[in-house]
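Database export, one record per block. Field names are fixed; values are copied verbatim from the stored entry.
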Amino acid sequence: MSDPPSKRGAEKAPTHPSPWSSSELRAFRPPKKLNVSDWADRTRVLDGASSSMPGPWRTARTPYLREIMDSFRDRRLKKIVLCFGTQLGKSETILNLIGYVIDQDPGPALLVYPTDQLARSISKNRIAPMLISSPALLEKWNIDQSENLELQFQGMYLALVGANSPSKLASRPIRYLFYDEIDKFPERSGADANPIDLAAERTKNFANSKQVMASSPTLNSGPIWQNYLAAQVRKKYFVPCPQCGAPLTLEHRGIKWPEELNSLPAEEREKRVLTEAWYQCPYCGAHIDDMQKYKMLQAGEWRPVVQNAEGLWEPAASSVKRPESVGYNISSLYSPWLTFGQVAQKFLKSKDDPLTFMNYQNGWLAEPWTPRAATMRSDAVLALALPYDPAVVPRGAQLLTCGVDVQQDHFYYVVRAWGPRLTSWLVDYGRFETWTELDAILDRPWTCEDGGDMLINLCFVDSGYNTAEVYEYCALHPEVAFPSKGSSQALTRAPISESVLEKPEFGGMKLFIIDGGYYKNFIHGRLQRPAGSPGSWNCFDGTSREYADMICAEQKVLEKTSSGKIREVWQLVAEHVPNHYLDCEVYAAAAAKRMGVRHLTDEVQ
């Protein structure tokens, strides 16, 4: 009789002992997927050569990096943009992401720096020490197969290239693309496309590719700021006010110091703000000191932002639920290693110089610089008129110089008198047609206001046009006239340099090279001084608007060179605006420098 159906199958199937031990079975278990921040806390070790705080990585020290690193695992996210100030850890963040890729999710990777030279340095001094100091990474590094700019690992490689090497940027498919300091990249890589776009083309073969770009901003047209603005979600780090709890972003306007410090000499004020500055909550006015910043950072969070009518950033709900690109913008005010006093001191030291202040705004505030033209206004020139007659040397002048701008068929000239402390007076200006008329200007005794006559001590003649004629004229007037040429680049050693013409017919005559930008800066600065004051740049009653307009025909702007550097340049305010008298004044000022104008004293020996 068979067993009832209810009991059929109740017997267990015979078991067989596993050929694997429990520890061996654990080895087959897939690795647990970690967040990048957790991986860094467990695995990354900072070496003493490249870090001021060697030892295990601790995300808690820089909590604003946690979301950024962890967002790297979001499969939907294709691009992460880090628009950071200095001393915030953006480069270490990239190294953490690279380490995570090597250890947890390998794939071909490319790391791009502004130049090959910097890439080699980073490979040797930052990446190799990271691999050696972190055992989990060292285990996966195939050292024997690696080169300085191409490191081999289990299941992947990491190539490092400079943005100035187009062939290397376009040579291989990659899954992970990292850019560091992209605002220092050249605009074009050789004759090829923009290096950022050129490298991005290499990711097309991978549906799960990712790009991470990091930099401090430069101009508002620069790549890091434009990529931040183009991100589908833009975020800032909000921290709570310790007093009122309002979420706020740390901005330059919140840095405060005692009002009485503003009346102190600059050096003493800069010293005092280092210890007396604080941050002021824009909502409740509470004074926030450096001791409170750490807890604020721990309680902070990244939020999508909008800017209100007062210019303050406020949190806003994002309309993009699953963004493919996210931008993060944070200033050095958040740095755990900088105090509010150090930020205040940096501001005070940089505020009066455009290029230095640009560095503060870019590197410390993580804000782009909007070029504003420094323009000379013709009214400001005419406001410097003093009651003395044209063609008369004012009282106190000890030196006369002349500058001549040569055009194709005519000339412009300026005669300027100089006294102690670089005080100067316009004596005469005009246009003439022939070299004989220049003879009359240079040979003329100029009447002095306090009696007697004075001759022109030195004349610089522009040799850009009619060069041969200029050389011939100056060779006939070796005691007073010299050919000169403006330099399109700033001179590194001095604003004026001299060389000897190699042509034997001119008997070793000197040619002076003039840094036009330097002397235009000089003139622009002197226009700010009150008429008649020491060091002022004066003109006579009745000076024409035409002269004043030419002096103001150029403006100073900031531009980015093809190599990615920022420089100040003088440009015409509009095409075809004449600037002849400005060029004449540049040559006259350079001639004064050559004559030792800085050594003039109030008492003539």
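Remark 1: The mean pLDDT is 88.
Remark 2: Residues 116-133 form the longest helix (18 residues).
End of record.
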